[in-house]
């Protein structure tokens, strides 16, 4: 019997594997700062998917102090992340991050389910197919 037959999983690795969505250390710092200034008690970051953008789907994020029926709630690095049931399949395994560049900064989603994305990084497709009918066009629309 080899070690490959019986992989060893540390508690930290098992916890990370169990989380359907995570947030980077820098993303968590930025989110905590924004949440602290929101004035909303027990608020979290709602991460969701909506139709639109040049690739078919767009990411959305909002500060939310409501927990809706069917929500998946994940606590990671001190931040509460809320994902609605419809968005969950498209976001599973994703990491929320915060990036800064010459154009400013903002939250982004590193999504292993995206098979393609547009240049702006706010729109993506999961199956290589064209955008849903009536969707598409310019980035961020």
Automatic annotation (TrEMBL):
InterPro entries for this protein: ATAP, ATAP_core_dom, FeS_cluster_insertion_CS, HesB-like_dom_sf
GO molecular function: 2 iron, 2 sulfur cluster binding; 4 iron, 4 sulfur cluster binding; iron ion binding
Any one Pfam family match given in the protein's UniProt record, by short name: Fe-S_biosyn
Gene3D superfamilies to which the protein is assigned, alphabetical: HesB-like domain (2.60.300.12)
Core domain residues: 21-121
GO BP terms, alphabetized: iron-sulfur cluster assembly
Domain of life: Bacteria
UniProt-listed PANTHER family: IRON-SULFUR CLUSTER ASSEMBLY 2 HOMOLOG, MITOCHONDRIAL
Protein name from the UniProt record: Iron-sulfur cluster assembly accessory protein
